[in-house]
């Protein structure tokens, strides 16, 4: 990122010096999100963006310094979709926050592929965290514990959802049209491992598990376990 100008969000908070131009940051973000949703993050280049916008290749640089800033704008734009009304209790608010965050990531799966150079700080992303944290205010938790509780739910949400999407990418690369197709393809390897006798508990799951493909149930069961632990640990 250029060091000769203020950070992205500080620049955008300043009043415009001239009437709004045809090419706006909002239009840039909307276009880039549309391309990424349809084709993935690899499709996002400054040249491709200019083509989609119908402008000269250098035109977007009047608004953003580089691709990392573009990705930051995209993330902020989709996090504006993450609205979580007060559910009446800290538990239900954080639960709804987790469910809606998971849905957001499934809608925009490229969120799991962002490079580490993209800043996690943006207005709408911070607003989402603020809403979740505010549900924990007034419960007698100190600031550090409050943040640890919020992060425990958020880390579970992102980790579980990233795993779901990684499995979906595995299926796509292998051209599997269903989880049964995956199991059939991996059956020889799984049979060998199970026949070693080293994994009796996993073998039981293979034979008795009835919700192997119910990702909603799996996610919500894990989420409720996290919330149960928080509630018990801190007597909330």
Model description:
Helix 2 (about 25-40) packs across helix 4 (about 65-80). It is built from 10 helices and no strands. The protein has helices at about 10-15, 25-40, 45-55, 65-80, 90-105, 125-135, 145-175, 180-195, 200-210, 215-235. It folds into 2 domains: about 10-80, Arc Repressor Mutant, subunit A (Orthogonal Bundle), CATH 1.10.10.60; about 90-235, Tetracycline Repressor, domain 2 (Orthogonal Bundle), CATH 1.10.357. The protein is mainly α and about 240 residues long.
The proportion of residues in beta strands is under 5%
Considering DSSP H and I runs of 4 or more, what fraction of the residues is helical? 55-70%
User: Compute the gyration radius: what is it?
Assistant: 22 Å
- The CATH class of the largest domain is Mainly Alpha
Write down how many β-strands occur, each being a DSSP E stretch of 2 or more residues.
0
* CATH fold call of the largest domain: Tetracycline Repressor, domain 2
Task: Supply the key terms.
single chain; 236 residues; mainly alpha; Arc Repressor Mutant, subunit A; Tetracycline Repressor, domain 2; 2 domains; 10 helices; flat
